[in-house]
Design brief:
Helices cover about 65% and strands about 0% of the residues. The N and C termini lie far apart (about 55 Å). The protein has helices at about 30-35, 40-60, 65-80, 95-115, 120-125, 140-155, 155-165, 175-180, 185-215. It folds into two domains: about 25-115, Orthogonal Bundle (Rna Polymerase Sigma Factor, Chain: A), CATH 1.10.1740; about 120-215, Orthogonal Bundle (Arc Repressor Mutant, subunit A). It has nine helices and no strands. It is mainly α and about 220 residues long. α3 crosses α9.
Amino acid sequence: MLAGDGPGRQAGPGGGAGGALDYTLLDDEALIVRLVQRDVRALDTLYARYSRPAFSLALKIIGDREVVEEVVQEVFLRLWTRAHTFDPQRGKLLSWLLTITHHRAVDELRRRRSQPETEGFQEQLAASDEPASDPSETYAQIEDREVVQSALAQLPPAQRVPIQMAYYGGLTQVEIAQSLKEPLGTIKTRMRLGMQKLRVLLAGRDDDSRRLGTERA
């Protein structure tokens, strides 16, 4: 599940002598209390309880199941990190989660529509660490690889490392998560954020190059 190897799984109060507490019998507010205490079983229970409606809502908005899976993981990751902000006086937990899901799905849809497709970017990244094998390779091509490497160096290690493992090592996201001992949802989020930052960094470099060319003209 999203939280992966989280805090120790302890039986909560009321489990009885020698018996573990059945978390599925707890209401949302009781689970939130345990979630604030970093009880991963509470998150597992809430994920099982509400991930399906969150997925259905995000799928209606985005339509891409793979992207929707990432959105849902991010929603429950936010629940894990910000459970203390939930106020039961303002509404039910499901409504809170669906509101977050809706906002996140709409943001993702807008991002996908507004950003130009970057086909070939991954191939450029994958080749950016390979030495030139063609003596006729232009300086511009060599410079492009150096720009990508420079942009990668500006990413936080948590985002840079899985991207390098994917595109230089050829590992899948599942393999990266297992290697780094991180939840798969966390790895997907870090890689997605890292790729977004790379595009911004490279776009900024392109703008600087065009501006410099104009000044020189």
